[in-house]
Fold each of these.
Amino acid sequence: MAAAAIAALVAVLFLVAAVDGTQPGPPLPAPLRKYKTIHPGKRNQVLTCSEPTDHRKPCVATCPNRCPEECLVYCPTCTTYCLCGLYPGFTCGDPRFTGADGNNFYFHGKKGQNFCIVSDTGLHINAHFIGKHNPAMSRDFTWIQALGIRFAEHRLYMGAQKTVVWDNEVDRLELTFDGKLIGIPDEINGQWQSTTVPALTVTRTSEANGVSVELKGAFEILARVVPITDEDSRIHSYGVTEDDSLAHFDLGFKFYDLTDDVHGVLGQTYSTNYVNKLSVSANMPIMGGGPRYVSSNIFATYCKVARFVRQAGISMITTRAS
């Protein structure tokens, strides 16, 4: 399939490079499960990146200057990357996406609503937005709080739990598959594998708040729960209060089996027929057309650009683990 050949990395992560003029970089190396998260000065800075069969020495990594407090480590090479380095497919903050074509754009959505960000014949992904209203603006500040993922007959939920006081070492991830809670060992590389869909795994990339989700042959998702800090709120006038740290997702996607008919806020950029009509030279190119992408709930597949067909090709993948 033409769009599958793109296989570009997509991730939703923290707003950094958009304000300093950084240009999009090439896709990150794959697979995403090989990435771990480190916090310099914390006990997990010296990272054992090896798998039991690799016989590699522990990886001692240092974060880049642009993101000294937290970064991703690609274990095979011990290379570090900023979470929001504007790689194709990355998106962050009030959400800024980097499409598969490498162009950046914002999609503000509306707090409390769900939007289809990827819709294809065999895969549908909705995002639930939380937000804060700024009376001085005509729109809400918004962030992605949850994902609802549909494939074949299955439903995968990924959520960032509401948190009053943020602590990096307290896990705020909520994951369910077909309505049942997913339990993952509280250690880096801890893994859960579905018994009904062996090709589906969830692996911890940090001891708390970071995972890689993979449906082999279909997609990978790199997810990190983060808060809005007091500093973020001060700089951007978010108006964060003491009763809610606005925990939300930084995310990354890699797709392997999309068709050229794929749509959605992000998904459309993976089609070889996609024509970018945004003003890419603007400081904040904004993708409009919000009503086209609205879904009635986190798992609904009836937005105006929906393409999902429950028994389409991806269902063949769900029965195999390799």
Amino acid sequence: MGRKRCVGADCSKMAAGCCGVKKQKLSGSPGSGGPGGAGSGVAGAGHCGSDLGIGSSSTVVAGNVNRVNGLGGPGGSSSSGGGGGGGSSGNSTALSPTPGGYNSTGLSPNLSPGPGSGSGARKMVVSAEMCCFCFDVLYCHLYGYQPPRTPRFTNDPYPLFVTWKIGRDKRLRGCIGTFSAMNLHSGLREYTLTSALKDSRFPPMTRDELPRLFCSVSLLTNFEDVGDYLDWEVGVHGIRIEFFNEKGSKRTATYLPEVAKEQGWDHIQTIDSLLRKGGYKAPITNDFRKTIKLTRYRSEKMTMSYAEYIAHRQHHHYQNGIGHPLPPYNHYS
């Protein structure tokens, strides 16, 4: 099956990426219209909305950055303006080197990469330090401290998403990212706060929620345009589709690599769900699916809980240049 690498400006046009949190009931045969649910694929916020919690495409241009949401939540519209905050933050700030007890990939014994992370034997770029940095940025913002200094992990540019979940059942609390490659220091700083405070599906986070949070950092890689809409692997690839709706308007929608596997979907169910989230309301036929332009990609994902963040900092004196007391550790309430 023909495929080509997606490079340069083609990749920067990508819209929203999403991960699901609640299973959606998919009724009817794959060819009878697929899963229901409205979702707008028009330019708007950078997140996926809907009660499924997975999301639609949508692009918000702020400066030269296309903001997108990455995980779904209750009842949000993908066209809402949840991107917030323009451009990258100035005066980026810092993390210390990989603390003792972390292996070469930056993982602690209790942390592991998410589905679809990495490729082959290549060393992963995403690390636990990046999640710690996101927690530091959010903590400093909520408590009014000076932002943390520039981190020491790589500042190479990547498309990225920052995802927040909360509670024992890990409900989505915010997820926004970009398919435009951003330098990691400024990109993670910006999308930490954008996803925590400006995801239009949720109210801004508060201090009280910190102890129950989980932070995930996803770096997107290996973009490929493919000639067949089935030419991707569930649990390995994220997909982004482009299509024309009933009125002839171009729409886009995307799911991060973990979505289809977490929802228990096959290829057709995933494609049909994306079409619905992108705002396609007509019956979905196999002939129509063949008109879809599909780009597949992979991601490196790291997840860390607030408890792991606090333990990390306490054990390794991992202060990241922050001149404030170590935040108190609280168990789940």
